[in-house]
Amino acid sequence: MKTIEQPKEGDYSAFFSTYLKQTSGNNYEEQLLEQTDHLVQFFSSKADGWVDQPYELGKWTPKEVLGHIIDTERIMAFRALCIARGEKASLPGFDQDPYVVNGKFGKVSIADLLDNFVAQRLSLISMLKILPDGSLDLVGSADGNSITPRALLWIIPGHFAHHLQILRARY
C-alpha cells in the first residue's frame, strides 16, 4: 500500500481545510479503498428508487452527489498530474453546479455510476504508483491559488468523506 504524508499548511488554500480535516494518517491507498467499499455498501443498502430523490427541493439527488464526487476526483487528479509533471500555467477552476446539470446523472444507472467511481479510484491508485516522490511537493496553481499535488491528492478522500457524511445524514 502506498503511503503519502499529509500536506502541510501552505500547500493549499484555506478553502480546502474543511476537506483535509476529514482525513487522517498517511496510508493514502488504504483510505481510498476503504472509502470505495463504504460507498458501494452504502448505496447497496438502500431501497430501489432512493437514488433519484433529493432530500429537499433544490438539492442534489444521491446520483448527482455521486456524479459530483466522480467529477471532482477526476479534476483533482488531473491537476495533481499536471503540477507533478511541472506544469507552469494556472489550471482552471470549475463551477460544480453546471457540471452536475450537464452531467445528467439522473439518466445514468446507479450501477454505471458506481462502476465509474470504482474505476476512477483504481485509476488514481495506478497513477500514484508512477508519480516520483519529489513531484508531490512541486507547487503549481489551480483556480488562481498555489497548491501541491500532495494536497490535491489528499483533498480527494477529504471531499469524499464530506459528501458521504451528508449522504448518511440526509438520505
Would you mind describing this structure in some detail?
The longest helix has 23 residues, at 62-84. Strands 1-2 form a two-stranded antiparallel ribbon. Helix 2 packs parallel to helix 6 (149-170), helix 3 (62-84) runs parallel beside helix 5 and helix 3 (62-84) runs antiparallel to helix 6 (149-170). The termini are far apart. It has helices at residues 17-20, 28-44, 62-84, 96-103, 110-130, 149-170; strands at residues 140-142, 145-147. 56% of the residues lie in helices and 4% in strands. Strand 1 (140-142) and strand 2 (145-147) form a beta hairpin. The protein has a single domain, classed as Four Helix Bundle (Hemerythrin (Met), subunit A). The protein is mostly helical and 171 residues long. The mean pLDDT is 96. The radius of gyration is 16 Å and the shape is globular.
Write the layout of secondary structure elements.
Blueprint: H1 17-20, H2 28-44, H3 62-84, H4 96-103, H5 110-130, E1 140-142, E2 145-147, H6 149-170
Antiparallel strand pairs: 1-2
Helix pairs in contact: 2-5, 2-6, 3-4, 3-5, 3-6
